[in-house]
Fold this sequence. Notes:
Keywords: DNA-binding, Plasmid, Transcription, Transcription regulation. Helix content is 48%, strand content 12%.
Amino acid sequence: MSTGPERPPTVVVLANDPVTREGVTGYLRSRPQMVEVLGFEDRARADVMVVLATDVTSQTLAGIRKASLETGNPDMRVVLVADSITEAQLTGAISHGLVSFLPRRQTEMQHILSTIVSSRAGHAYLPAELVRKLVEGLRAMQVSESSDFTLSEREIDIVRLLSEGWTTEEIAEKLSYSERTIKNAIHGMLARLGLRNRTHAVGYAARIGIL
Protein backbone atom coordinates (compact mmCIF):
# COMPACT_ATOMS: atom_id res chain seq x y z
CA MET A 1 0.00 0.00 0.00
CA SER A 2 1.40 3.41 -0.97
CA THR A 3 2.19 5.79 1.87
CA GLY A 4 2.14 8.82 -0.42
CA PRO A 5 4.97 11.21 -1.23
CA GLU A 6 7.50 12.01 1.47
CA ARG A 7 6.99 15.41 3.05
CA PRO A 8 9.45 18.17 2.15
CA PRO A 9 12.22 18.82 4.70
CA THR A 10 11.51 21.58 7.21
CA VAL A 11 14.18 24.28 7.42
CA VAL A 12 14.98 27.29 9.55
CA VAL A 13 17.36 30.01 8.30
CA LEU A 14 19.71 31.90 10.64
CA ALA A 15 21.80 34.93 9.66
CA ASN A 16 23.12 38.07 11.31
CA ASP A 17 22.34 40.08 8.19
CA PRO A 18 18.55 40.45 7.83
CA VAL A 19 18.81 41.24 4.10
CA THR A 20 20.69 38.00 3.44
CA ARG A 21 18.29 36.03 5.63
CA GLU A 22 15.22 37.42 3.88
CA GLY A 23 16.76 36.81 0.45
CA VAL A 24 17.45 33.14 1.13
CA THR A 25 14.17 32.65 3.02
CA GLY A 26 12.21 34.22 0.19
CA TYR A 27 13.83 31.96 -2.38
CA LEU A 28 13.18 28.83 -0.33
CA ARG A 29 9.56 29.81 0.29
CA SER A 30 9.09 30.08 -3.48
CA ARG A 31 9.86 26.33 -3.65
CA PRO A 32 7.20 24.88 -1.29
CA GLN A 33 7.25 21.54 -3.12
CA MET A 34 10.92 21.17 -2.14
CA VAL A 35 11.16 22.63 1.38
CA GLU A 36 8.96 24.01 4.16
CA VAL A 37 10.43 27.16 5.73
CA LEU A 38 9.80 27.62 9.45
CA GLY A 39 10.00 30.72 11.58
CA PHE A 40 12.70 30.87 14.25
CA GLU A 41 10.11 30.20 16.94
CA ASP A 42 9.35 26.83 15.31
CA ARG A 43 13.02 25.78 15.01
CA ALA A 44 12.46 22.69 17.17
CA ARG A 45 10.58 21.15 14.20
CA ALA A 46 13.38 21.82 11.71
CA ASP A 47 15.03 18.95 9.87
CA VAL A 48 17.74 21.30 8.64
CA MET A 49 19.15 24.57 9.98
CA VAL A 50 20.85 26.83 7.44
CA VAL A 51 23.35 29.28 8.94
CA LEU A 52 24.49 32.17 6.74
CA ALA A 53 27.65 34.09 7.64
CA THR A 54 30.47 36.03 6.04
CA ASP A 55 33.19 35.16 8.54
CA VAL A 56 32.87 32.19 10.89
CA THR A 57 33.53 33.58 14.36
CA SER A 58 33.18 32.27 17.89
CA GLN A 59 29.77 33.97 17.91
CA THR A 60 28.77 32.04 14.80
CA LEU A 61 29.72 28.73 16.40
CA ALA A 62 28.07 29.71 19.68
CA GLY A 63 24.90 30.50 17.76
CA ILE A 64 24.95 27.08 16.06
CA ARG A 65 25.55 25.37 19.40
CA LYS A 66 22.80 27.34 21.16
CA ALA A 67 20.23 26.80 18.41
CA SER A 68 21.09 23.10 18.17
CA LEU A 69 20.71 22.60 21.91
CA GLU A 70 17.49 24.61 22.06
CA THR A 71 15.78 22.45 19.47
CA GLY A 72 16.36 19.28 21.49
CA ASN A 73 16.55 17.47 18.15
CA PRO A 74 19.80 15.44 17.83
CA ASP A 75 18.91 14.52 14.25
CA MET A 76 18.74 18.10 12.97
CA ARG A 77 21.29 18.75 10.23
CA VAL A 78 23.21 22.01 9.98
CA VAL A 79 24.25 23.57 6.67
CA LEU A 80 26.74 26.43 7.00
CA VAL A 81 27.28 28.96 4.21
CA ALA A 82 30.31 31.20 4.77
CA ASP A 83 33.49 32.46 3.14
CA SER A 84 35.82 30.07 4.94
CA ILE A 85 36.22 27.92 8.05
CA THR A 86 39.22 26.61 9.95
CA GLU A 87 39.77 22.97 10.87
CA ALA A 88 39.18 23.72 14.55
CA GLN A 89 35.95 25.56 13.76
CA LEU A 90 34.87 22.72 11.49
CA THR A 91 35.44 20.11 14.17
CA GLY A 92 33.46 22.17 16.68
CA ALA A 93 30.58 22.73 14.28
CA ILE A 94 30.40 19.03 13.38
CA SER A 95 29.94 18.19 17.05
CA HIS A 96 26.75 20.28 16.95
CA GLY A 97 25.24 18.79 13.81
CA LEU A 98 27.09 20.35 10.88
CA VAL A 99 26.94 18.06 7.87
CA SER A 100 27.57 20.45 4.99
CA PHE A 101 29.68 23.55 4.37
CA LEU A 102 29.16 25.73 1.29
CA PRO A 103 31.69 28.43 0.26
CA ARG A 104 29.55 31.58 0.17
CA ARG A 105 31.02 33.26 -2.90
CA GLN A 106 30.70 30.11 -5.01
CA THR A 107 27.22 29.09 -3.89
CA GLU A 108 23.99 29.91 -5.70
CA MET A 109 20.49 29.69 -4.26
CA GLN A 110 19.78 26.43 -6.09
CA HIS A 111 22.84 24.85 -4.47
CA ILE A 112 21.61 25.82 -1.01
CA LEU A 113 18.22 24.28 -1.82
CA SER A 114 19.68 21.02 -3.12
CA THR A 115 22.04 20.78 -0.13
CA ILE A 116 19.11 21.16 2.29
CA VAL A 117 17.29 18.29 0.60
CA SER A 118 20.36 16.02 0.42
CA SER A 119 21.41 16.84 4.01
CA ARG A 120 17.98 15.85 5.31
CA ALA A 121 18.40 12.57 3.38
CA GLY A 122 21.60 11.85 5.30
CA HIS A 123 24.20 13.09 2.85
CA ALA A 124 27.06 15.41 3.68
CA TYR A 125 29.00 17.91 1.62
CA LEU A 126 32.43 19.20 2.56
CA PRO A 127 34.92 20.60 0.03
CA ALA A 128 37.96 18.35 -0.44
CA GLU A 129 40.30 20.85 1.20
CA LEU A 130 38.16 20.89 4.33
CA VAL A 131 38.14 17.10 4.47
CA ARG A 132 41.93 17.12 4.30
CA LYS A 133 42.10 19.66 7.14
CA LEU A 134 39.72 17.56 9.23
CA VAL A 135 41.75 14.43 8.60
CA GLU A 136 45.03 16.14 9.50
CA GLY A 137 43.59 17.46 12.76
CA LEU A 138 41.93 14.24 13.82
CA ARG A 139 45.01 12.14 13.09
CA ALA A 140 46.74 13.93 15.94
CA MET A 141 44.13 12.77 18.44
CA GLN A 142 44.56 9.68 20.59
CA VAL A 143 41.98 7.01 20.00
CA SER A 144 40.94 3.96 21.98
CA GLU A 145 42.46 0.71 20.71
CA SER A 146 39.46 -1.33 21.85
CA SER A 147 38.46 -4.01 19.33
CA ASP A 148 34.83 -2.98 19.85
CA PHE A 149 35.57 0.11 17.80
CA THR A 150 37.30 -1.45 14.82
CA LEU A 151 35.89 -1.30 11.30
CA SER A 152 35.29 -4.26 9.02
CA GLU A 153 37.02 -4.45 5.64
CA ARG A 154 33.81 -3.44 3.89
CA GLU A 155 33.26 -0.53 6.27
CA ILE A 156 36.80 0.68 5.60
CA ASP A 157 36.15 0.63 1.85
CA ILE A 158 32.89 2.51 2.34
CA VAL A 159 34.27 5.21 4.61
CA ARG A 160 37.25 5.80 2.31
CA LEU A 161 34.87 6.45 -0.56
CA LEU A 162 32.67 8.66 1.63
CA SER A 163 35.75 10.75 2.43
CA GLU A 164 36.17 11.33 -1.29
CA GLY A 165 32.61 12.56 -1.67
CA TRP A 166 31.09 9.48 -3.31
CA THR A 167 27.31 9.04 -3.08
CA THR A 168 25.66 5.88 -1.74
CA GLU A 169 24.69 4.87 -5.27
CA GLU A 170 28.24 5.35 -6.56
CA ILE A 171 29.72 3.38 -3.65
CA ALA A 172 27.28 0.52 -4.28
CA GLU A 173 28.29 0.35 -7.93
CA LYS A 174 32.00 0.57 -7.11
CA LEU A 175 31.88 -2.20 -4.49
CA SER A 176 29.32 -4.37 -6.36
CA TYR A 177 26.65 -4.24 -3.65
CA SER A 178 23.05 -3.05 -3.74
CA GLU A 179 22.44 0.52 -2.62
CA ARG A 180 20.28 -0.82 0.24
CA THR A 181 23.19 -2.98 1.45
CA ILE A 182 25.49 0.05 1.51
CA LYS A 183 22.91 2.16 3.34
CA ASN A 184 22.41 -0.59 5.92
CA ALA A 185 26.16 -0.95 6.37
CA ILE A 186 26.55 2.79 6.96
CA HIS A 187 23.62 2.87 9.39
CA GLY A 188 24.98 -0.11 11.31
CA MET A 189 28.46 1.40 11.51
CA LEU A 190 27.13 4.73 12.80
CA ALA A 191 24.93 3.03 15.39
CA ARG A 192 27.68 0.69 16.62
CA LEU A 193 30.26 3.43 16.98
CA GLY A 194 27.88 6.05 18.38
CA LEU A 195 28.50 8.45 15.47
CA ARG A 196 25.93 11.02 14.39
CA ASN A 197 26.44 11.11 10.64
CA ARG A 198 28.70 10.27 7.72
CA THR A 199 30.96 13.24 8.32
CA HIS A 200 31.64 11.90 11.83
CA ALA A 201 32.39 8.49 10.29
CA VAL A 202 35.05 10.06 8.07
CA GLY A 203 36.56 11.83 11.08
CA TYR A 204 36.55 8.63 13.13
CA ALA A 205 38.27 6.69 10.33
CA ALA A 206 40.95 9.36 10.19
CA ARG A 207 41.47 9.16 13.95
CA ILE A 208 42.19 5.43 13.83
CA GLY A 209 44.60 5.86 10.91
CA ILE A 210 42.51 4.39 8.10
CA LEU A 211 42.54 7.47 5.86
